[in-house]
Write a structure and sequence with these properties.
Elements (H helix, E strand, L loop, with lengths): L1 E5 L1 H7 L2 H16 L3 E2 L4 E4 L5 E10 L4 E10 L10 E9 L5 E6 H20 L6 E5 L3 H13 L4 E5 L3 H10 L7 E4 L10 E4 L18 E4 L19 E4 L2 H7 L1 H8 L8 E3 L14 E4 L4 H18 L3 E4 L1
Parallel strand pairs: 1-7, 8-9, 8-11, 9-10, 11-12, 12-15, 13-14, 13-15
Antiparallel strand pairs: 1-16, 2-4, 3-4, 4-5, 5-6, 6-7
Helix pairs in contact: 1-8, 2-3, 2-8, 3-4, 3-8
Length: 320
């Protein structure tokens, strides 16, 4: 049996951010319509400090493959010179279950998460975006910025992380259009921004809610534990609140859980991004997209990568 191995470079060559956004959009629509299955992930504690392993399967009608991702998140890895996220994604034939491809999971995770953020910008952000604030300077921040720039072209993006050196390296390494100026920001970077993106591993809010304007979109993709909040739950009060998958977000998002406990929002107020009404509407002020990550994203983007890679002759075939 042969299986196609797709490393980081092959994935990037096979699927652009714009293409990934379209794929994720279709996957979320299928999930919200009941045409896909993505059970809540299984979580296992590892021996490293703050380290967890997550197992995330998904299948969907009319998709030729199903997927399963094994991803580990270890906050102590940076001190060891390793990436925080370690992962692999297996695609199997949806009819026979035979393995079809093995994909670098860290690259696919960053791409599909950035694509979800890009989709949120497409559907929820104000049409005019002059200033954006990005909290975080890691791999997730890179693709979040790519997703943003696929849908809007702010003239200034303020980037903030506790380590100024990481921010400087991020700015130096990111290939931004000449019309977009990346600058080092601070905790107050959200002030005056039309789009605010949180892509950190912080367990506490990374900016002050008082800095948000009335016409602002906020995306949060970093925290995925009930005891973690990248932004203050009060931000959800009075906002159009959209999530990737309602059951997962209500079980895992500390921001949503706390906001509901304090009476800022009700479960009925929470929309899924795959639903038809999960778009900015006239009269909307603040919009919020909270993603805890969903396996349908891995399947949708993984399938797109596989199709394009096979057509372009990318990857390496190995015998099992």
């Amino acid at each position: 049996m042969k299986i196609l191995v797709l490393d980081s470079s092959a994935i990037r060559a096979a699927c652009s951010m714009s293409d990934a956004i379209d794929a994720v959009a279709a996957g979320f629509v299928a999930l919200s319509a009941g045409r896909a299955s993505a059970p809540l992930r299984s979580v296992l504690e590892l021996s490293g400090p703050g380290a967890q392993m997550l197992v995330m399967p998904a299948s969907a009608r009319d998709f030729p493959v199903a997927s399963v991702k094994v991803v580990s998140v270890a906050n102590g890895n940076r001190e060891l010179g390793l990436a925080t996220i370690q992962a692999a994604v297996m695609l199997v034939d949806a009819q026979t279950g035979a393995p079809r491809a093995l994909l670098d999971g860290a690259t696919l995770t960053a791409l599909r998460t950035g694509a979800a953020g890009g989709l949120a910008v497409r559907q929820l952000a104000p049409a005019r975006c002059d200033v954006a604030a990005l909290y975080g300077a890691g791999a997730q921040a890179v693709t979040q910025l790519q997703g943003l720039l696929s849908e809007r072209r702010p003239h200034e993006v303020r980037i903030f992380a506790p380590n100024a050196g990481h921010v400087d390296a991020f700015i130096a390494g990111f290939d931004a259009p000449s019309s977009v100026h990346l600058v080092r920001g601070d905790r107050d970077s959200a002030a005056g921004a039309q789009v605010v993106i949180c892509a950190t591993n912080s367990t506490r809010p990374v900016f002050d809610r008082g800095d948000l304007g009335g016409e602002t979109h906020v995306t949060g993709v970093g925290s995925f534990r009930p005891d973690s909040c990248e932004f203050e739950p009060e931000i959800l009060a009075g906002a159009r609140v959209v999530v990737d998958h309602r059951p997962a977000a209500l079980a895992e998002s500390g921001e949503l859980i706390t906001a509901m406990q304090r009476g800022f929002i009700r479960e009925a107020d929470v929309l899924e991004i795959g639903e038809a009404n999960a778009r900015r509407q006239n009269g909307d002020g603040r919009t919020v997209f909270k993603s805890v990550g969903n396996a349908i994203q891995d399947l949708a983007v993984g399938n797109r990568v596989l199709v394009r890679a096979m057509a372009a002759g990318l990857g390496t075939w190995v015998n099992l």
